[in-house]
Specification:
Number of helices: 8
Radius of gyration: 27 Å
Strand content: under 5%
Largest sheet: none
Helix content: 40-55%
């Protein structure tokens, strides 16, 4: 399958995907003015290799999900982005760490809004794929279920992940309760008896 805008696309035209730093010789930081240079290098790279329709939102990613070549190129583009941004920005965008779902999604949405404010196009498909990529390993099973949500959207994903977070918290609490109960039933020492009251002596007459 090829998109209507990619009838001649040729898998990077011989470009080695590992040579991204030769093609984009700048690193994007959140704290300096490298964004426009970074964006320009990528814009040229996409046009030179007929990859624009992978990033401009003109192709519905759901229509290409079974096209192995298309998805492989998408994965390479994502890797290019991740390897040309600073470590701090990478962790801000990609890594959930120990944040709650609400905090993680709020930070991600804020970053997307800031990029859009300066003219960077971040379509819904890229937002959703970045959201999934940044989930920590506790949500491993949830990521496969997200693909089953009809008419996927950021609010739907967030709502589902909140429910999953609540479910996992309940499971963890039950496991801890059962472990504590099992430890007590296996011969844990009984609680110590309270000390006997001191004998009461009547004062001598």
């Amino acid at each position: 399958m090829t998109s209507s805008g990619s009838s001649s696309y040729n898998s990077f035209a011989g470009l080695d995907p590992a040579d991204i730093h030769d093609c984009v010789p700048v690193v994007l930081y959140a704290t300096n003015a490298t964004y426009f240079a970074w964006k320009m290098y990528f814009s040229l790279l996409f046009r030179e290799n007929n990859l624009v329709d992978h990033v401009d939102g003109s192709v519905d990613s759901r229509a290409t999900v079974r096209d192995s070549e298309w998805t492989a190129i998408d994965a390479t583009l994502t890797r290019w982005f991740f390897t040309t941004i600073s470590k701090d920005l990478f962790h801000t965008v990609v890594t959930m760490d120990d944040q709650s779902i609400d905090d993680y999604c709020r930070r991600l949405k804020l970053l997307v809004d800031e990029l859009r404010d300066i003219g960077a196009k971040v379509d819904d498909d890229l937002l959703l794929s970045t959201l999934i990529a940044g989930l920590n390993e506790d949500f491993g099973n949830a990521t496969s279920n997200l693909s089953l949500i009809p008419e996927p959207s950021f609010p739907k994903f967030v709502a589902y992940l909140r429910l999953e977070e609540r479910r996992m918290k309940g499971v963890k609490e039950r496991v801890q309760h059962h472990a504590l109960a099992a430890g007590t039933s296996r011969g844990a020492p009984p609680p110590a008896a309270p000390p006997a009251p001191a004998p009461h002596h009547q004062p001598a007459p």
